[in-house]
Amino acid sequence: MGLDIAKSIGDYDLLEKIAEGGMGAIYRGRHRQSGAIVAIKVMAPHLTKNPLLLKRFEQEFRAASRLDHPNIVRALDYSDNGNRPFLVMEFVEGESLGQKLEREGRMSEAEAIRLIAQVAQGLHRAHKQNLVHRDVKPDNILVTPDGVAKLADLGLVKETETDLNLTRTGRGLGTPHFMAPEQFRNAKNADVRCDVYSLGATLYQMVTGELPFRSNGPLDAWMKKIQNDLVPPRQLVPELSERVDWAIRRAMNADPEKRPASCREFIEDLTGKSTRRLPSVDSATPQQDLWYLVYKDETGAPHTVKGTVSAIRRSLRDGLLGDASNVRASRSKAGPFEPLRGYPEFRDLVVEAVPASPPSLPSWGGGKRGPSAHPAATPTDATAPTQQHLQPGASQSLSPPSALPTPPLKPLISLRDVPSSTNWEALKWVCFFVLLFLTAVISFWFFQH
Asked: Domain span at residue 229?
């Protein structure tokens, strides 16, 4: 008897089918004793004979039941009795983020950041529990009518610290447009940075209304990913802030080592604000904005300067403090002083993201380029910073322009050459002729011997 006819399973009444996916159907249901409304995911009958899929279905419940977080859909019950395994989850009123985007199109930057920050918090909790989601995408994010985002569907979750791993080596799992390029090759080795990539790709669609890699198939998407052939979000939506554009491009870098190391760092990139507890500062110092920097000039003499975030950012962009990667900062005059990349207020000035122009477009001209051209939007500071003559070891303030000439703009980061666009058709012909040549060589060797 089919489920639509049976109208019940275990201790639950099935009220209506609300979704259907690769593993089975999802119903809105009600517990007979308590009357609680729940979501019930019932495994498709033809999959129940597959031991691997049964284990993965059980693992989804076990992983979700460990995660008690307001931004993750809770797992409530599981049963594999009989021939109809099912998973019971909290019922979330609302719709998926994918449905919302399809109906309304791209959303405002502020709303997108608010929702993605909630998802990142839930995902960060999962990572702390040694779980990697591996399938973060708009369709797996539910949004309630009052604007709460909840991460759902842990069907592809990976437990990093246990022997239970249900993914074969060399197999890719996930959704091509949203998963990291290394996950294409081997989902077994997927880690936190793969989820960070998917968060960035999800935010890309939220703020642009476009898939990050529009292609005809998984192979084309993978080729674009590994070449960083990404159309910058600001090219599609010019009013998007430079900081969000940079944060998305950094999260979607083909090299996982160049992405944020955690969901927390990704949100810091987006907001330009630290999530760490600030150290105590001098009582006379305005805690909210004053920073101290130490650096060495071209003669090797040390200097200490202080200023507001906006004043320091302007000085760094103009190259007035030399190579920004050598500058160290602290909220306290006494230190400790750390590299700028450790502070989200300045990280975008020293950390490279995916090139701002896609490889298929002409090379950069004389305009803005590289990460130093994409700082966070900051309020205009009344004290426009320039570098005055600083005594070695003395603490100086970044002050208004003086009569001294302003040094020319110095690039803060050496930029890699933009890779040339790959002509896929030409590449296929090259491979064909190479294969033909090798066949001829092998045939000649065979007949000679």
From this structure: 95-271
Residues 6+ away with beta carbon under 8 Å from 378: 309, 310, 313
Residues 206 and 108 in one domain: yes
- From the number of C-beta atoms within 10 Å of its C-beta (0-12, 13-18, 19+), residue 136 rates as buried
Phi, psi of 168 (to 5 degrees): -75, 145
What is the residue whose two structure tokens read 């004043």? 311
Which tokens belong to 32? 């007979």
Q: Which of the listed residues 71, 90, 109 is the one where a domain comes to its end?
A: 90
CA angle 25, 88, 175 (to 5 degrees): 50
Please name which of 65, 15, 71 lies closest in space to residue 40, comparing C-alpha atoms: 15
Cα separation, 231 vs 324, whole angstroms: 27
Secondary structure class of 27 (helix, strand, coil):
strand
Q: Report residue 313: phi and psi, to 5°.
A: -60, -40
> Helix, strand, or coil here: 184?
helix
**265-268 contacts, C-beta under 8 A, 24 or more apart:** 265/344, 266/120, 266/196, 266/199, 266/200, 267/117, 267/120, 268/344, 268/347
Give the closest residue to 315 by CA, choosing from 336, 332, 281, 340.
340
11 and 51 co-located in one domain? yes
Cα separation, 213 vs 215, in Å, equals 6
Q: How many domains does the chain have?
A: 3
Most confident of the following: 151-155, 303-307, 414-418? 303-307
Residues 64 and 151 in one domain: no
The half-sphere exposure of 222 on its side-chain side, counting CA atoms within 13 A, is 14
Distance CA 288, CA 276 (A): 14
Within this chain, do residues 237 and 253 fall inside the same structural domain, yes or no?
yes
Residues 104 and 191 both lie in one domain? yes
- Catalytic residue chosen out of the listed positions 4, 68, 80, 135: 135
pLDDT for residue 97 is more than 50: yes
Same domain, 86 and 99: no
Ordered DSSP codes for 184-206: HH-GGG--HHHHHHHHHHHHHHH
| The pair of three-digit structure tokens given for residue 69, joined into one six-digit string | 């977080």
Is the domain of 163 the same as that of 301?
no
* Pair of tokens at residue 117: 């920050």
pLDDT score of 215 more than 70:
no
Is 135 in the active site? yes
CB atoms within 10 A of CB 254: 18
Find tokens 């950012």 and name the residue: 313
Average pLDDT over residues 87-104: 94
